[in-house]
Specification:
- The complex is a heterodimer of chains A (375) and B (478).
- Chain A has 375 residues and is an all-alpha fold.
- Chain A is built from 16 helices and 3 strands.
- Chain A is globular.
- Chain A starts with a helix and ends with a helix.
- Chain B has 478 residues and is an alpha/beta fold.
- Chain B has 4 domains: 70 residues, OB fold (Dihydrolipoamide Acetyltransferase, E2P) (Beta Barrel); 164 residues, Rossmann fold, CATH 3.40.50; 96 residues, Ubiquitin-like (UB roll); 66 residues, no CATH class.
- Chain B has a 7-stranded mixed sheet. In chain B, strands 2, 16, 17, 18, 19, 20 and 21 form a 7-stranded mixed sheet that branches.
- The longest helix of chain B has 15 residues.
- Chain B is globular, with a radius of gyration of 22 Å.
- The two termini of chain B are 39 Å apart.
- Classes of the chains: A mainly alpha (375), B alpha/beta (478).
- Chains A and B meet through helix 2, strand 1, helix 3 and helix 16 of A and strand 22, helix 11 and helix 12 of B.
Chain lengths: 375, 478
């Protein structure tokens, strides 16, 4: 029945129709409801069931545990700070009142821009922002003013993505770019030392304690792991992140190479820094603090902005891990290094790929030379 | 046994309807045949016959204006009934009506012992007979994946003796009892090259003595999922093609036809063809002549078509379980084959007819269903719970076209030391130097067919590779 309705109104959105200017929008909603009936014309007659929508939805699904826990945690931190205790649902509900508006703002602004660009370019609307738009509220502190979030999202989508040609062409991870924009444009709100825990109060994050050398203030490892502590919405519970990682790896959407090498890079740099006495945090704490794991699983693995070759991914991931800890330890101005490390390595990913691919080219040329020499 | 080349990367698409092992000889006389010049896609055909011409098996039908010595001949004796033109007067089909009694053009016959003693000095004799009988067109080359040039001498000649493509025929079945033909064919091919004739065999799948006992050729053993059976993949692992080199390849069944030409002195186009696919009622192997009309096998043999093939006319419409549904008939496999009508003809290079459902239907909320009936390389559908199941896969694209987003996927189905994404991008941007550096000489569209299959961005990857190869060919003025 729904199908019939769509078929009936479809002509109005096609060329010459009354709402032709909304073609991309109609198309986006139609394909959202139904996988289109297009059949193969050229090349392979059969195609895999996986399309971009499904791939992106898998990532959103993998983010769900983090999102749900993060929402609950926002409420929990609120009531903890007030010294009250509340039942599960009121706590969750309070979280919703903080997190849902962020999600809505991010989606409305981001998708709005995407739709306009898709219409203008005559493309179909790309699904990439389903993930970016979901990530943005998860990596921001819950007290960020909504208008700032809107400006940051718009910046990320327009300057970070559309100017390069849209999804698939961008250099930097759009969600991180939004975070970076907030960080540099409104440093007072986003310094990272102190984080909002409840109205009118704030507490130091674990990272800030470390950078000030106060090991005693650190939450213990299990608290870090399960995430009942202040922080950005999605990043606190490492358990939920690991569930997400498992989903991404099992479905084959996320890259194991990147995730593992980021962790390895972080651990080794953490070990060096700890052994050298530059920081009070152990490598394990480095791994569990702040947005390290969240970044490793959901941000560094972004296939568009990460290195594309298999060896490139390993190098890229390892350097992210190293850099993130390096920034944490040696740069007192930024207690959290993950965001900058990923954005920095996004920039260098093409260079890494270039070097990796070049080895393949050289191998081929050597083979040719060898053959010509023996002729 | 020689060392086995084990390939891990690749994918066997679990599609329903593999041909069962029965071989059917023609139950009745097949009258309709066609030769399709478009199958030899790089040729510029010049007709030598017209409607009404009487031909024998082996009479030239047309030659290639680019290389005038290369001719294509009739597989049957009979009359030319019709020349079918496509857009821009492209010659699409030369239709033939076969005689009940087959008459053959005569060529020179040799004994098997003679052929075994042949060496490079007999090259000219071999070339002339292959050209005259119209079998030269079945020798193709890499790079560029076109018909070979008779004036050249390839580095090596490769024959892949197994096919790993979806629903592919079992090559042992095709070679059974034709050991002499195959050996003779190999002996003839041996005279053409300065190097060797290489056979690619599957460790478990190939048991036919025609292949395993083949003499005067080098045997290489492979193991792995599709595209392990692609000759391009095998060349890459046996002796990769470098810039300036050229190798040739021939399908084993065509090798047998060549062998028969030299042993018997006539073009006997008999081949065994598999009929497969989820929409076929009785899948099987058929002994036919090249270019036969596929309607003989589809008549009363396609699901939901009790009313007969006539209703198939036009848009192939018929019904399955009371619902209107369509079928797609493919000459070749579902990854690289050509779409033909249910009244169409077997393609020149094809040994398989696949019949699968058309996918022109909407799928509700496809991005969030469990997907128990969707086969996928990824594990994003819960069909991974059933690793043994086969699927009725249709022709739906399963999504819209997007920019390349996912990375590291193509590598998993291309067992070559090549960076597929980078090579594709070089082809798209027409960067000649990058294409050359990244190994364009070693690939053909069929090697990228699986990349095209798994691509979540639904890009026409085989076409991109083809365009890249053509650009290269022009640039090198080949």
């Amino acid at each position: 029945m729904l199908r019939k309705f769509l078929d009936r109104i479809k002509p109005q959105f096609e060329k010459g129709g009354r709402f032709a200017f909304l073609h991309a929008t109609f198309d986006a909603f139609e394909t959202f409801l139904y996988v289109p009936d297009t059949v193969t014309v050229k090349g392979a007659h059969v195609r895999d069931g996986l399309d971009m929508k499904r791939a992106m939805i898998m990532v959103v699904l993998a983010l769900m545990p983090c999102f749900l826990f993060g929402t609950y945690n926002v409420g929990l931190m609120h009531y903890n700070a007030l010294g009250e205790s509340a039942a599960f649902w009121p706590t969750f509900w309070f979280g919703c009142t903080k997190v849902l508006p962020m999600l809505i703002v991010s989606y409305v602004v981001g998708l709005g821009i995407e739709f306009i660009f898709a219409q203008y370019r005559g493309h179909e609307v790309n699904e990439g922002f389903l993930v970016s738009g979901f990530l943005i509220p998860l990596i921001c502190p819950p007290d960020v003013p909504l208008w700032m979030l809107a400006v940051a999202t718009a910046f990320a989508v327009i300057i970070g993505k559309e100017v390069f040609g849209g999804t698939g062409m961008n250099i930097w991870n759009p969600a991180l770019l939004a975070r970076a924009f907030l960080f540099f444009a409104y440093p007072a709100h986003m310094s990272g030392d102190e984080v909002w825990v409840a109205d009118a109060t704030s507490g130091p994050t674990a990272l800030a304690s470390v950078s000030q050398g106060q090991a005693a203030n650190l939450p213990d490892l299990s608290q870090l792991f399960f995430g009942f502590m202040p922080g950005s919405v999605g990043e606190t519970s490492k358990l939920c992140i690991l569930i997400g990682a498992a989903i991404l790896l099992w479905t084959g959407i996320g890259s194991l190479r990147v995730m593992l090498s980021v962790v390895l890079g972080g651990l080794s740099m953490g070990l060096i820094a700890h052994a050298a006495g530059a920081t009070v945090a152990t490598p394990w704490q480095q791994l569990l603090m702040g947005g390290f794991l969240f970044g490793a699983v959901f941000m560094a693995t972004d296939p568009v902005t990460s290195a594309q070759t298999n060896w490139g991914k390993v190098i890229y991931g390892f350097l992210i891990g190293v850099l993130a800890v390096l920034i944490r330890v040696f740069n007192p101005a930024y207690p959290e290094g993950m965001m900058l490390a990923i954005l920095f390595m996004n920039t260098f990913a093409p260079l890494i790929d270039y070097l990796v691919v070049n080895r393949n080219i050289q191998r081929r040329q050597r083979r040719l030379k060898l053959k010509n020499a023996t002729k | 046994m020689n060392k086995v080349i084990k390939l891990r990367r690749g994918l066997d698409i679990r599609i329903q309807g593999v041909a069962d092992g029965s071989l059917r000889a023609p139950a009745f006389f097949h009258e309709d045949y066609a030769v399709k010049p478009v199958d030899f896609w790089d040729m510029r055909p010049k007709l030598l016959v017209e409607a009404g011409s009487v031909v024998k098996a082996g009479t030239p039908l047309f030659y290639d204006k680019n290389r005038e010595a290369v001719k294509v001949t009739s597989p049957v004796s009979g009359t030319v009934t019709e020349i079918v033109y496509g857009p821009k007067r492209r010659i699409e089909e030369i239709r033939l009506k076969a005689d009940k009694e087959m008459a053959y053009e005569t060529f020179t016959a040799y004994s098997a012992a003679d052929l075994a003693a042949w060496d490079g000095s007999k090259r000219d004799t071999a070339v002339r007979q292959l050209l005259d009988a119209g079998l030269w067109a079945f020798i193709r080359r890499r790079p560029y994946d076109t018909v070979a040039d008779p004036q050249r001498r390839p580095r090596d000649i490769f024959i892949s003796c197994f096919d790993t493509a979806p629903l592919a025929p079992d090559m042992d079945m095709l070679a059974h009892g034709r050991e002499e033909d195959f050996q003779a064919g190999v002996d003839v091919l041996r005279t053409l090259t300065a190097g060797k004739v290489h056979l690619g065999l599957h460790v478990q799948k190939n048991n036919a003595v025609a292949f395993t006992e083949c003499k005067r050729a080098e045997l290489h053993y492979f193991e792995g999922p599709h595209p392990c059976g692609n000759v391009g993949i095998q060349i890459h692992h046996i002796a990769p093609i470098d810039k300036g080199e050229e190798v040739w390849y021939v399908h084993p069944q065509d090798v047998m036809i060549m062998g028969r030409l030299f042993l018997k002195g006539r073009y006997d186009a008999t081949k065994i063809v598999a009929l497969a696919g989820s929409e076929v009622i009785r899948t099987s192997y058929h002994k036919v002549l090249a270019g036969v009309s596929v309607r003989y096998f589809l008549q009363d043999n396609v699901k939901g078509m009790e009313r007969g093939l006539e209703v198939l006319d036009g848009d192939n419409r018929h019904s399955v379980d009371g619902h209107p549904a369509d079928i797609r008939v493919i000459s070749g496999n579902v990854l690289t084959g050509t779409k033909i009508s249910a009244q169409g003809y077997l393609g020149a290079y094809d040994h398989l007819i696949s019949v699968i459902p058309e996918g022109n239907r909407f799928r509700f909320m496809g991005w969030m269903t469990l997907g128990l009936n969707m086969f996928s390389f990824s594990k994003t559908f819960f069909s991974w719970l059933f690793p043994q199941r086969t699927y009725r896969i249709d022709t739906n694209v399963n999504g819209g076209k997007r920019a390349f987003v996912l990375t590291g996927e193509f590598e998993k189905v291309l067992p070559m030391d090549i960076y597929p994404m980078q090579l594709l991008k070089a082809c798209i941007t027409q960067d000649i130097e990058a294409m050359e550096n990244l190994g364009i000489y070693e690939v053909a569209p069929e090697d990228f067919a699986l990349c095209e299959y798994i691509d979540a961005s639904k890009t026409d990857i085989q076409q991109i590779i083809r365009d890249g190869l053509e650009l290269m060919r022009k640039e090198m003025s080949e």
